[in-house]
Amino acid sequence: MRHPVILFLFCNQIHALNFRQEPGQDVFQEHPEASGTLMDDIFGSLITIDNQFFPGQTSEQMQQYSGSDTTHASASSVFKLNKLRFPEDDDLSDFTGLGPLYSGIVTFAHLPESNCFFDQEEAIDIAISGAPFDLGVSYNSGARFGPNGARQGSRRLGSGNNPIRGNNKSSKLRRLDPYHAGLKIVDCGDVPMTPFDSRIALNQLYRGQRAIHKHPSLNSTRYNQTRIVTLGGDHTITLMNLKSAFETFGEIDGLAVIHFDAHIDTWDPKVLGGGISDYASLNHGTFLHYATEAGYVSKNHSVHVGIRAPFISSDDERHDAEDCGFQTFTSKDIDIYGTRGIAKMIKKIVGDKKVYLTFDLDTFDVGLVNSGTLEAGGLSTREVLTILDGLEGIDLVGSDIVEVSTAPNTINSASTELLAAQVVDSLLGLMVVNDIP
Ligand SMILES: *[C@@H]1O[C@H](CO)[C@@H](O)[C@H](O)[C@H]1NC(C)=O
Ligand SMILES: *[C@@H]1O[C@H](CO)[C@@H](O)[C@H](O)[C@H]1NC(C)=O
Ligand SMILES: *[C@@H]1O[C@H](CO)[C@@H](O)[C@H](O)[C@H]1NC(C)=O
Ligand SMILES: *[C@@H]1O[C@H](CO)[C@@H](O)[C@H](O)[C@H]1NC(C)=O
Ligand SMILES: [Mn+2]
């Protein structure tokens, strides 16, 4: 484990030094003492393999084992001679580009930032946008910090091949780097949502989503408008995301909705909140009822995954299935059908419909995250990643992660941030894999 890391760091350093080399000036002149590999020259006898421990080996075999590559000899002579040459005092040419992953102004996965709300002409394939809002929760607040949290958790994302993306070797997700697959992905920042009136805040979100959706796509093979991944925010925000996605991409009978959650969220608004005031009837437990009523959700093609919270009234299950048209996989169904089995069944339910996927962080088990309404008996991180990758091929026009409660100084805040980011990473994989230019 150690050696590749050390080499990597030193290789980086050499690049930086090489970069500063003046034309015609040979900084790395061969020195007579510099003869071994870079590792030999820097660490010397600390790591040299001693012949006496391998009595049966010829010296040729030993040399093969310990390496005789002299390609880096000239570079390593810089270290050997201990003559580090710094750039000119006013030279900042090595400040361009990315610094270490934990530094810098934070966008999701280091994506370029875009002024999406005002520069309407810019062509964008996929936009990340935050919805910092938690006025709709019935239990634990803090999701207003979720967009920032997801970005903080995404700092190690943005490039490279993930060896567990895709569930098998013939999957198109395998070896896909969604950030560099030819689609333009940007971070639009957050929609400014007032913390004082949820009606105004949700309307602000709708107008923000609409403004982003109006952008033309750049390299997409399937869509003329920009698709959005929203960082929430409590689950109420999905109503506005769905409304704008439906108006942009929807068919007459709505979008197929894949809803990962511990709760059904189609609760009767008269019971949950509506008993207090009409204003209170729209919240994170009723938004799916309203979305269905408004026609954004395709009945018979929509599904809950991970359900385990108790129902409030005896009519909830009937209302959910018959009035709202959802099929349900509970968290224990994953033990019965397996992660790949569940993924196959979800794909069958949504068919070739346009899909909106909304992911409530409380899908994960209670010990892993902080979220609006935590429930025992949830999914593991690996189960979630396998199910999501098993959805490869769905026509995903929009998605969000919600109930990302990363309020300052709260427990599990760091793992909540990381898991939120990781789910978005999987969602980007699903959105890109079907649309590689
Ligand atoms: C491999 O993954 C792809 C994409 O999810 C799927 O279509 C295919 O059936 C899988 N193959 C096997 C052998 O599981
Ligand atoms: C879009 O496609 C063009 C033409 O193939 C390519 O040069 C460009 O890099 C692509 N944009 C992105 C963001 O990948
Ligand atoms: C995208 O625009 C082109 C050109 O106007 C049109 O032919 C095509 O049907 C549109 N595609 C979608 C998915 O709307
Ligand atoms: C949903 O499926 C049921 C049973 O197959 C059918 O009776 C109903 O008409 C379907 N609803 C819609 C909106 O397609
Ligand atoms: Mn929810």
From TrEMBL:
Residues 159-170 have a biased composition (Polar residues). The keyword Signal applies. Keywords: Signal. Coiled coil: none annotated. Gene3D superfamilies: Ureohydrolase domain. GO terms for biological process: putrescine biosynthetic process from arginine, via agmatine. It comes from the Eukaryota. Belongs to the arginase family. This is Arginase. It comes from Ogataea philodendri. The lineage of its organism: Eukaryota, Fungi, Dikarya, Ascomycota, Saccharomycotina.
